[in-house]
Each structure stands twice: as C-alpha cells, then as structure tokens.
Task: inverse folding
C-alpha cells in the first residue's frame, strides 16, 4: 500500500501533504505475539497496518476478552487512551508477523500545524461507531456474523473461531452453528 493510498482512505491530500506524512511516520516490524501497547500504558500513537493482524483485548483473570480485531490496511489505536491521554484498559498485540506505520500524537500535531488537511484524520477517531452498532444487544448472533462478513470479511479467514466468538460476545459453539448455516 502506498502513502497516497493510505491517505486517500482518510481524505484528500496534496503531494506536499504526502511528503509531510512520510517524514512524520515510522515503519516498524513486529513479531507474532509482540505487544504494541500494554494495559496501563498511555496510547501515544496511531498505527496503520501494512501487513499482518492484531488483537486488542482486556485480561480478566486468565482469559483474554477480545475488544477488537485488526487486519491489514486499517488504522488501529486505543481510542479512549489516545484521546484522553489516560492509561489503556486494553492490550494491543500482534497476532501474526506484522508491519505497521506509526504516527505519534506529537507528530500528528506537527502535521496539523503544517497543513490543515490532516484535520481529516478526525474520521478515524469515529471508528468506534462500528463497535457500538455491533454490540447493540438487539443483534442476534447470525446478524453479528453477517455484519462482520460485510464490514471486515478478512476477520473470518485470519482469526480462529474462539477469538471471533469472543469479539462478537457469543459462545464459540454458537458461532460454529452460525457459520455452518452461512
């Protein structure tokens, strides 16, 4: 994915904006199970997934409760921690070998100071609206599964049933039945 394609997913940017973005982002490689953000740390960056996949989860006793699943060509961050600059209530961990672009909050502010175009990044802060819809208690298990197949179809090929079930807040057995009827 090129810088232009990444920025086109956010809004309209000039070639000068593209150069600024490239100057202010850092490419990083992560190994499988490498932690990007620990619970209790303050999220200081936006991350764009160039390749690989990530899970965002809370730990309860010995269980990992999946809060979000991320795959390539999407933005990822802990919204509450980043916007409030408060300790994260979740961990973000690489599910597979991955490559990301990191845009630190301080570099984001520099970009906004140099070009108002970067204010369009406000769009990516609204991604949580999808999660609110997904976890509206009125959705049945098959409706939740249909929704992720429509919005993020790659989740079903990248992550195991147990993780997807946790993400959808349904039992793995229920998800297996839903998938059998899909």
Result:
């Amino acid at each position: 994915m090129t810088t232009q394609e990444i920025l086109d997913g956010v809004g309209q940017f000039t070639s000068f904006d593209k150069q600024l973005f490239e100057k202010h982002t850092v490419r990083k490689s992560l190994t499988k199970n490498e932690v990007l953000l620990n619970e209790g740390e303050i999220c200081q960056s936006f991350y764009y997934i160039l390749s690989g996949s990530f899970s965002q989860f809370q730990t309860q006793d010995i269980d990992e409760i999946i809060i979000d699943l991320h795959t390539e060509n999407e933005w990822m961050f802990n919204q509450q921690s980043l916007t409030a600059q408060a300790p994260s209530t979740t961990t973000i961990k690489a599910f597979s070998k991955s490559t990301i672009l990191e845009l630190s909050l301080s570099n984001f502010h520099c970009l906004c100071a140099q070009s108002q175009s970067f204010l369009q990044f406000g769009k990516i802060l609204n991604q949580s609206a999808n999660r609110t819809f997904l976890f509206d208690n009125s959705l049945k298990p098959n409706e939740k599964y249909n929704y992720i197949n429509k919005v993020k179809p790659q989740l079903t090929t990248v992550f195991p049933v147990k993780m997807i079930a946790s993400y959808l807040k349904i039992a793995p057995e229920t998800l297996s039945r839903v998938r059998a009827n899909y």
User: Anything to note?
Assistant: The chain has a mean pLDDT of 92. The chain has two domains: 1-125, 127-182.
